[in-house]
């Protein structure tokens, strides 16, 4: 049984969830979601979700960044896991903060590393190419997927040089 | 007493810290650090740390993003807390992933909202303007502060239009 109480830890100025039994402080920092718009000959790779939330709806391959992972690495890993595809990142599309759920979403434009080979991963019912006019807007899983697709379409050429503003240490 | 054990939770593929008593899963996702290079007439605002780690060393005002906070808001808040200054952000300087400590650091270029008024906040011993050639490189608190200052100096003019790639929702 969890036994968290609201409390301001010593040296802190905000109320946190503190375990009344062991004193563990469960800081709720925003989580980073990393993903990619993988395009090939103008078509975009979308995945139909095999898991909740929004099971059966279409999404861009994306997921929570893991510890010690760079956002770029997370995007590559998620595409591998959800669409069984190997990609090369070409630039940052945008950073969207979804405040209500404490997520900072970073999406990258990408191409296939080799041939445009993909398949449904474990969390995916179906992976498919869509031309822009074929995208099933009414069956998109999350609003941020729509925003990212629109940002991708708009084409932010001035910030496409990834190496200039995202450095891995 | 914390009672965490390493375990793969159901539906997960990675080992996590799970409390053997209550089942709480302590996911270790990367944390976002947000901060700013606040410049005025070519001088940069630095803060001498009043707290560990690196107490007594100089840093840019920055800190962990709080729940439901946008990186831009975090940067403004940290400058307010650490240097008692009100700023306006002008653009993203860079995103640095410090993998060893699971931090994704986002720094913004900024100017004072009004007059260049500042003071030492609670976690700061001293806040001060430095011309570029005056920066005490040997007394900088963290390597990422040096990288951010250098990125700021380089000036990434092409990505200075914040609104284009960071959207708040």
Please tag this protein with its features.
mainly beta, 38% strand, homodimer
Q: What does the main sheet of chain A amount to?
A: 7 strands, mixed
- Radius of gyration over C-alpha positions of chain A, nearest whole angstrom: 18 Å
Low-pLDDT residue spans of chain A? 156-169
Structural class of chain A: mainly beta
Helix content range of chain A: 10-25%
**SSE string of chain A, helix = H, strand = E?**
EEEEEEEHEEEHE
Summed over residues and divided by their number, the pLDDT of chain A gives a mean of 86
Number of strands of chain A: 11
Write down the oligomeric state.
Answer: homodimer
Shape of chain A: elongated
Largest interface: A-B, 50 and 50 residues
**What is the count of DSSP helices of chain A, taking H or I runs of 4+ residues?**
2
Ends of chain A: how far apart? 39 Å
**Strand residues, percent of chain A:** 35-45%
Describe the structure.
- The structure is a homodimer.
- Chain A has helices at about 70-85, 145-155, and strands spanning about 5, 15-20, 25, 30-40, 45-50, 60, 60-65, 85-100, 105-110, 125-130, 165-169.
- Chain A has about 170 residues and is mainly β.
- In chain A, the strands form two sheets. In chain A, strands 4, 5, 6, 7, 8, 9 and 10 form a seven-stranded mixed sheet that branches.
- Chain A is elongated and about 55 Å long.
- The termini of chain A are far apart.
- Chains A and B meet through strand 8, helix 2 and strand 11 of A and strand 8, helix 2 and strand 11 of B.
């Amino acid at each position: 049984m969890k036994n968290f109480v609201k409390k301001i830890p010593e040296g802190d100025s905000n109320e946190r969830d503190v375990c009344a039994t062991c004193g563990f402080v469960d800081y709720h920092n925003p989580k980073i979601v990393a993903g990619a718009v993988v395009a090939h000959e103008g078509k975009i790779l979308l995945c139909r979700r095999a898991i909740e939330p929004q099971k059966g709806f279409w999404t861009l391959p994306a997921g929570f960044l893991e510890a010690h992972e760079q956002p770029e690495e997370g995007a590559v890993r998620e595409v591998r896991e959800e669409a069984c595809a190997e990609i090369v990142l070409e630039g940052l599309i945008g950073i969207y903060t979804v405040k209500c759920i404490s997520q900072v979403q970073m999406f990258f434009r990408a191409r296939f590393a080799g041939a445009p080979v993909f398949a449904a991963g474990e969390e995916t019912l179906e992976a498919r190419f869509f031309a822009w006019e074929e995208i099933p807007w009414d069956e998109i899983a999350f609003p941020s997927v729509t925003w990212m697709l629109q940002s991708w379409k708009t084409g932010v050429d001035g910030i496409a040089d990834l190496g200039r503003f995202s450095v891995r240490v």
